[in-house]
Amino acid sequence: MEENGQIKVLFERYLANECAPDQIRELLARFNLPENNDTLRNLITRHLESIDLDNGSAEEAVQQVYEKLLEKVTFEKDLDSAPRRFVILPLWTRVAAVWILLAVSCGVGGYFIARWSDAPLLKDTALALLVQTHTEVAGIGERKKVTLEDGSVIWLNAESKLTYPVSFQKNSREVSLEGEAYFEIVRDTERPFIIQSGKITTKVLGTSFNIKAYQADPAVSVTVMTGKVEVNSPESAIQIVRNQQVKYADGNIYKEVDIDAAAQIAWRNGKLQFRNTLLSDVIKTLERNYPVKITYNTNLSDCQVHADFDAVTPFENVMEMLSGSLGGTVTKLGNAQYHLDGRCNNIRTNTSYLEN
């Protein structure tokens, strides 16, 4: 409580133009702590609500805060000699609204805005503070359907999380994904749809596509079913269309054409389809769909699997099929723990085969 009280005092002094530079730096440092995010939100919200506007416009309220903060912007005298870095934070990171504005106004932490023309970006960030977000999570073996306020529909795969605004802003539609999801986006040429997933950003106007961005996977992939998609990484940007896929891994982005896009999204209909998929990746998928842990001999990691399963197939049946194709065995080690032995070969079963 004493900590929150000190933050409140500093914040009120800042709004009253009574903060010395060292106090602004202290305020910034306190707001940069995750445990102070709620305090920051409450202070900003109360201040915006206190501003007397004729039409009560939230956007105009943000404009007033924005202009007030810009009055305190002090650029370094020799910006050309200073390293120029820009902070890009997700829309729903509430602390960003004031954190960026204060950081820029103080020149703290080495973040600088080089031109006045860049300043409107700060207003957009502040406006984002007013956006209320919702998070939808699909657990192990779950699939969830989410309908957004613009009519777009998103299907979440197992162990995935989607964060999105309850109401989109007037110039863009932005969401965040961890895991895998299939998107059917309503076309809106005035508001591009943007998905942040790991280190890549996917931008569309209206199309259907799949994004797979599990943190445990080495690569992020985007696969298009209809329309056109633009994928941006820190290094480059690339556009893909139907039956094409982009993969991003280790700072490299590359495109694959003539892929089986339908197999990539079979999970949406309760199917697990593998097309020459590494066994190591198959195991990850199984662990996301069944509450189990699977170990296996490392010499099997590069075995390629071609198989089709229903997501409701009993796990023991799936493992029996895999071990049979490997010419090996599956051993239950304990509660929900299994070990897979075998070798890579071309033996087919009625649903799968493995090859090296």
UniProtKB/TrEMBL annotation:
Example of a GO MF term: sigma factor antagonist activity
Residues annotated as domain FecR protein: 138-230
InterPro entries attached to this UniProt entry: FecR (IPR006860), FecR_C (IPR032508), Ferrdict_sens_TM (IPR012373)
Transmembrane parts of this sequence: 91-114
Lineage: Bacteria, Pseudomonadati, Bacteroidota, Cytophagia, Cytophagales
Superkingdom assignment: Bacteria
Official protein name in the record: DUF4974 domain-containing protein
Coiled-coil intervals, chain numbering: none
Gene3D superfamilies assigned to the protein according to its UniProt record, in alphabetical order: 2.60.120.1440, 3.55.50.30
Keyword terms of this UniProt record: Membrane, Transmembrane, Transmembrane helix
All residue ranges annotated as the Protein FecR C-terminal domain in the record: 271-327
